Amino acid sequence: MQQGSGILTPRQRRLAWLGFLLAAVQAPVAAKFVADSSWLFSLCVALMVATVIIADDASRRQPAQARSSD
């Protein structure tokens, strides 16, 4: 049984992980140095990128036959 390919290419997946890590690190740093709540935007971006990475993982774990029948 072959595993299916994800929605992201390997390069896009690496960039998504890099973007997630940068946004996740930037949010608490900005929260410490910025008086307003604009750091929440970085947190939301990190959560959205994490959602895409999780969706890609779920897509990769499905057997190739199960996805091609949809």
Question: Which short descriptors sum up this protein?
Answer:
membrane, 70 residues, transmembrane, mainly alpha, transmembrane helix
Describe it for me?
This protein has 70 residues and is mostly helical. Helices cover 74% and strands 0% of the residues. The chain has helices at residues 10-33, 39-61, 64-68. Helix 1 (10-33) runs antiparallel to helix 2. It is elongated and about 50 Å long. The protein starts with 9 loop residues before the first helix and ends with a helix.
List the helices and strands and how they pair.
Blueprint lengths: L9 H24 L5 H23 L2 H5 L2
Mean pLDDT: 86
Biggest sheet architecture: none
In quaternary terms, these chains amount to: single chain
Low-confidence stretches: none
Number of DSSP E strands: 0
Distance between the termini: 17 Å
**Net shape:** elongated
Count of helical regions: 3
| Helical coverage, percent range | over 70%
Gyration radius from CA atoms, angstroms? 16 Å
Beta-strand content estimate:
under 5%
Output the helix-strand order. HHH
Class by alpha and beta content? mainly alpha
Keywords: Membrane, Transmembrane, Transmembrane helix
